[in-house]
Amino acid sequence: MKKLLNSLFVTQPDVYLSLDGDNIVLQKEQEKLGRVPLHNLESVVSFGYTGASPALMGYCAERNISMVFLTMNGRFLARVIGESRGNVVLRKRQYRVSEDETQSAHIARNFIVGKIYNQKWMIERATRDYPMRVDVEKFKEVSQQLSAIILEVRACEDLERLRGLEGQAAISYNKLLDQMILQQKEDFYFHIRSRRPPLDNVNAMLSFAYTLLANDVASALEGVGLDAYVGFLHRDRPGRASLALDVMEELRGVYADKFVLTLINKRMVSKDDFLKKENGAVIMKDEVRRSFLSEWQSKKQEKITHPYLGEKISWGLLPHVQSLLLARYLRGDLDEYPPFLWK
Predict the structure, then answer these.
(1) Distance, CA of 56 to CA of 180 (rounded, Å)
(2) pLDDT by residue (tens digit) across 19-77?
(3) Residue 96 and which of 125, 200, 250, 337 are 20 to 30 A apart at CA?
(4) Which residues are noted in the entry as Mn(2+)-binding (predicted)?
(5) Which three-class secondary structure string do you get for the chain?
(6) Sequence ranges of the binding site
(7) Positions at the binding site for Mn(2+)
(8) Which of 277, 265, 261 is nearest to 205 (CA)?
(9) Nearest residue to 281 (alpha-carbon basis) of 212, 207, 215, 210
(10) What pLDDT, in 10s, does the model give residues 68-107?
(11) Under a CB-based contact definition with an 8 Å cutoff, are residues 146 and 116 in contact?
(12) CA distance 19 to 25
């Protein structure tokens, strides 16, 4: 159980939620785990299938407290609300901003600042932890390039220019990603990003990690009442969760890339875990995919201190916190969307 930004996150498995007066009661089997006053809450987010009492849902619906239900793995199931009030206002604001490219750029540039800042952090961390195994001079040079690009991004008000700057940063960062692979170099290497299909072991893992992260972010956005398919940097395209792709930009390197590098460098995967198809596509074997998912869920339980909130949360709650912050910005409660800047 964790209370953040007037939202209660119930992350323990098999917890039933009920109402006692003006309090929400968390119960597992016959044991009461805790009770939280409802009068200051805006939403309750529950991971798992156990459910909530009709009395609690009715109470929350009457007072405009949303209840969000996700699987233990973070897949969105449902969002229960009463009469459409705050939710419709939030989405109308989201749609208006998305239609205005200048306003969209003001939000999008913070996603990009977060992405480049976190890539720079990974580069600096590599020079500190492995000075004898990476080209420190080259890493420092790219770090300075990324710092310069961040300054340009912060002043940019044009979406096309933003995309160009993001592309420049990606090229510089990708040149060093291969050096961050410290083990099994013959079988795991990164020369260029290949997506459809992935053409090597590393790209196969990155594609799967990005898919998982996009799904987690989309669930978080739906949980706060935003439309995951209407973005600001990524424009509308049928079937594409554009806003999820926006928000996950700042998490790609520090969350997904770092996760894949850890699996390789700790020898938790090997060349025998992959298959190459006739068209050149490389895929993970089914049993390895299941192991990958298990490790991903374990990663989501690890604790970090959120740099903006100054509170300890799990990695798995990070998409939900960023979604809440984005919703607050769109409502006018924050002057600027605060990207996740890892330290």
Answers:
(1) 50
(2) 999 899 998 888 888 889 998 888 888 888 788 999 998 988 888 888 888 887 777 78
(3) 250
(4) 166, 234, 249
(5) CEEECCEEEECCCCCEEEEECCEEEEEECCEEEEEEECCCCCEEEEECCCCECHHHHHHHHHCCCEEEEECCCCCEEEEECCCCCHHHHHHHHHHHHHHCHHHHHHHHHHHHHHHHHHHHHHHHHHHHHCCCCCCHHHHHHHHHHHHHHHHHHHHCCCHHHHHHHHHHHHHHHHHHHHHHCCCCCCCCCCCCCCCCCCCCHHHHHHHHHHHHHHHHHHHHHHHHCCCCCCCCCCCCCCCCCHHHHHHHHHHHHHHHHHHHHHHHHCCCCCHHHEEECCCCCEEECHHHHHHHHHHHHHHHHCEEECCCCCCEEEHHHHHHHHHHHHHHHHHCCCCCCCCCCCC
(6) 166, 234, 249
(7) 166, 234, 249
(8) 261
(9) 207
(10) 888 877 777 887 877 655 567 889 999 999 999 999 999 9
(11) yes
(12) 6
> Which residue's structure tokens are 């990524």?
234
Q: Which residues of the chain have pLDDT under 70?
A: 1-2, 83-87
User: Amino acid identity, residue 135?
Assistant: D
For residue 131, how many C-alpha atoms fall within 13 Å in the half-sphere facing its CB? 1
Instruction: For CA atoms 103, 227, 70, 81, give the dihedral sign.
Output: positive
Query: What backbone torsions phi and psi does residue 297 show, to the nearest 5 degrees?
Result: -65, -35
The C-alpha atoms of residue 319 and residue 121 are separated, in whole angstroms, by 19
- Pull the structure tokens for residue 38: 């409802």
- CA atoms of 247 and 240, how far apart (whole Å): 13
Torsion over CA: 277, 281, 286, 292 (sign): positive
Measured distance CA(5)–CA(40) in Å, rounded? 10
* Three-point CA angle 323, 261, 279, nearest 5°: 95
Alpha-carbon distance of 53 to 122, in angstroms, equals 45
